Amino acid sequence: MKKLFLAALSRIIQGIGIGVCGLSLIYMGWFLFFSYSEYKYYLAAFTLPGLILGYYIFKFAVRKIYDESPSDW
Known about the structure:
The chain is mainly alpha-helical. It has helices at 2-34, 40-46, 48-65.
């Protein structure tokens, strides 16, 4: 039961991490290609921490909560 709970929790947190990364990429694309603001490059650069944060949330869920990978990787 504990293994099932950890697997489900890991998948939920992985989804949150990928969601943060995806939203950051969408906003970055919006600011770079569709925005008419004179600050569009600064705003696109401002989304980079969200991309990095989403990656580390995903990485934490994969490595620390529930790791399904073989031990010889």
